[in-house]
């Protein structure tokens, strides 16, 4: 039912800047984008993107030097896509890992065609780009699953779309995609080798569908005929983490799923690719649109993107459009330490109002609170306000963490007094439910207390401990309960602990002993 | 076999050992057909529960002594299941809502509704209402107390409530005004001595007067504690001798030890150890206000006159905060840190003055 549609002839009027063949220019197609180009319409429930354009009859390559229309084409980002594995901004080792997996697939193609691979990593780390580039180099046709928008097509029998049929359809569609697309090739595509790509997980798996997903993989590994790749972006919370929920360890072991983890792109590589982006911008057909921004702006973009190359590219695009004023940048307080070569300390700056928000983990923040850094101007390097902002949704938890961890960092009892004083006040403020702002103020107070009270922090590695949970012990033993009889139920836990326990324990022990001796 | 505390507990109002006038008043109260909500207040171990049970017996006859314990399950609005143990007879139900922690409101409301919505089966000669005994009423949250106030009014036809509290100061005025307050003061020392002597006589033992006196002192006029100590002492050694050892309350000994550790060393590492000890006490279920009080008493007894006032000042401040806050350990720790600080300063000054 999936009507596969491939481009076999290229439209001469659109996507001009894409059509140059890789040999003739650096600007070539297919990066990470899901290319739903003007030609390949979404057909029915499934569309696979033929991202490979090599086999397309290229009608425009000879006219490459002609000026394109000065408007930015819809998918301008593809103009900057890497065309070969050398151009990828990903670390060569990672590229090598993916390549060796693909080679492995090829080697065992006859015997075990249904290999499965899982690529994870933060957004914009080049997961999809790597795969697409390698697939093209090795002559694979990538067939991607995209969640269908319209489900009614599936209820083909003319039935009323009943509840169950509607719910099942996504799953069925996905299953048939996996099994059929891996077996039968398109009439219009010359390549023999196919590669299935799932980046868009059907919603049904995200809720409670782990079991059905596992079944599906079982089916696939016995019936599938092509390598299958899942691409999952990391997410911070566990509940949303697909790689964690859908791919537990035993499932990975069962199907020998190759798990390759991508890292955020390193700053140096990012800077290099920014340069190559700039060189693309200076190409004649781009000159009408772009001007290359100043060096400081480029650096700020790299800093602000935090290893997300897609984000960096978007910022670059925005800041280099002709007729756009230069982007305002703001200084960061971070100062890079002078290197041995005697380079001057260089203040980093980031883009104002654009770029990714910095997010820090709890452990990271604990480190900043416990070992506060003071910079040259006698100010805290990480402001307490900044840390407060990051944890304003869970103030109680953070304060508990501070309490559990602050003690080993202090040398003097006098400093501790100040810190615990503030923590106590913060506790009272957090307990005040009538004003929302108070809890944030309390958190701020606790953070400031811990950061500022410590005059001479103990440095060194001190492991972070979780806050202690107080669970009142299950009370009396059976003998003790027997002693008290039915009245035991009416004694509250605290009363039992303070008044009864120590005496009753003595009496019960004695009784037990005497009971044993008489029996003996 | 039962503990002496239960075994020799007076069962009837006429057999109470002390506060006899009050017992007479309570009997008169029962003679009337109607009966108000009651609130018994007084220190721990003064006989509130005993009086309540005697009163119930006076009203319903010996049927109230056929007790059964039952675990009731309540569901909070947030769909959390909590289990509360109750002790009940056909005529009354005794519950400790404070064990439900912050969910005590649900317990109070649901329980009273359940009990109050059913009428007594046989009305002949009996009262037409049931009694709900709420022990440790002062541990109830404000929320629960307000809920209690409403339900008290609503179901007054079918149930009466008897609250037993240590101090009325933590009971909201609305409830205080709806209840008849009955003060049960702690028994005086001679009264306790005579009760201890009586108990020993009935057990066929002789209690030396010196030991009795020491027991009373150690029990802090808490009759229940005195009786339990007596029984524990008997278990340890019979016949009694005048200077025999009286077993300590575990947590009190533990606190004493903690206090002496605080005095011995004032460093962050020690503070950490003290924190562990405080956690230990909290896990045992000792209420934080008792821990605080015990700590302050022990520290003040062991330190120099010049820093006593300062210590007490900090104690009041952090005690107050502990009531306002939720994490009691923070405030206990804060007090310990403050004390360590002033004690350390005191010691260093002492060394200086000694030198010159």
UniProtKB/TrEMBL annotation, chain A:
Q: Locate the region Disordered.
A: 18-73
Task: Name the domain of life.
Answer: Eukaryota
Q: What is the predominant subcellular site recorded for this chain? A: nucleus
From the record, what ranges are coiled-coil?
none
Q: Which processes are annotated in GO (biological process)?
A: DNA damage checkpoint signaling; DNA repair; mitotic DNA replication checkpoint signaling
Q: Which GO CC terms are listed, alphabetically? A: nucleus
Can you name one GO molecular function term for this protein? Answer: DNA clamp loader activity
- What are the Polar residues biased-composition ranges? 36-62
Q: Which UniProt keywords apply?
A: ATP-binding, Cell cycle, DNA damage, Nucleotide-binding, Nucleus
Pfam families to which the protein is assigned, alphabetical: Rad17
The UniProt similarity line reads: Belongs to the rad17/RAD24 family.
Record-given protein name:
AAA+ ATPase domain-containing protein
- Organism whose genome encodes this protein: Drosophila ananassae (Fruit fly)
Lineage, broadest ranks: Eukaryota, Metazoa, Ecdysozoa, Arthropoda, Hexapoda
Automatic annotation (TrEMBL), chain B:
SUPFAM superfamilies the record matches: P-loop containing nucleoside triphosphate hydrolases, post-AAA+ oligomerization domain-like
Task: Name a Pfam family for this protein.
Answer: DNA_pol3_delta2
A GO MF term: DNA binding
Which UniProt keyword terms apply here? DNA replication, Nucleus
The family database entries (CDD domains) matched by this protein are listed as: AAA
Cell compartments where the protein resides: Nucleus
What InterPro entries does UniProt report for this protein, alphabetically? DNA_pol3_clamp-load_cplx_C, DNA_Rep/Repair_Clamp_Loader, P-loop_NTPase
One Gene Ontology BP term is:
DNA strand elongation involved in DNA replication
Q: Which GO terms describe its cellular component?
A: DNA replication factor C complex; Elg1 RFC-like complex; nucleus
What domain of life? Eukaryota
State whether it acts alone or in a complex, and with which partners, per the record.
Answer: Subunit of the RFC complex, an heteropentameric complex consisting of a large subunit RFC1 and four small subunits RFC2, RFC3, RFC4 and RFC5; the RFC complex interacts with PCNA. Forms an heterotetrameric complex with RFC2, RFC4 and RFC5; this complex has ATPase activity but is not stimulated by PCNA. The heterotetramer of subunits RFC2, RFC3, RFC4 and RFC5 interacts with RAD17. Interacts with CNTD1; this interaction facilitates crossover formation.
The function of this protein is:
Subunit of the replication factor C (RFC) complex which acts during elongation of primed DNA templates by DNA polymerases delta and epsilon, and is necessary for ATP-dependent loading of proliferating cell nuclear antigen (PCNA) onto primed DNA.
This protein is called Replication factor C subunit 3
Species whose genome carries this gene: Drosophila ananassae (Fruit fly)
